[in-house]
Specification:
The chain contains 2 helices and 7 strands. A 5-stranded antiparallel sheet has the order 6-3-2-1-7. By secondary structure, the protein is α+β, with helices and mostly antiparallel strands.
Length: 130
């Protein structure tokens, strides 16, 4: 199976920025869907993450790679990720790209009314919401 990140669709992402005050535990997982409707996971992880490899008595290294995932395994992986997010909310980030795409449908320009638009010349910097 060829793992082609550029020609596959990113549908789900999990990031662990390093929990338990150990920045070597970071990891980044991205679930992709290929054009033939099969799935694969692209991962990167720090030396003390689940993807780390022991290369010496006191030395671990991080690694990256890909592996195929079956649909039934994806649901388990998502549930486990949700549990980690509950345990480590400050360091765990989950992005459901399919849901984000569905929710980001915007009005067509033809559907926008003048009330939806704010001319930038009529608003001062103090009135900006950010």
């Amino acid at each position: 199976m060829k793992f082609d990140v550029k020609n596959s669709k990113l549908i789900y992402e999990v990031r662990d920025l390093g929990h338990d005050n150990d920045k070597e535990r970071w990891m980044h997982e991205q679930l992709y869907k290929r054009k033939d409707s099969t799935y694969f996971l692209h991962f990167e992880g720090g030396p003390k993450s689940r993807y780390g490899i022991r290369v010496g008595f006191y030395k671990d290294i991080g690694r990256s790679g890909n592996y195929k995932m079956e649909e039934e395994d994806i649901e388990i992986w998502k549930r486990v990720s949700d549990l980690y997010k509950k345990d480590y909310p400050e360091s765990y980030i989950i992005i459901d790209w399919e849901r984000e795409e569905d929710e980001s449908v915007m009005k067509e320009e033809s559907q926008l009314s003048d009330d939806d638009l704010i001319p930038m010349g009529e608003i001062s910097e103090d009135e900006l919401p950010f």
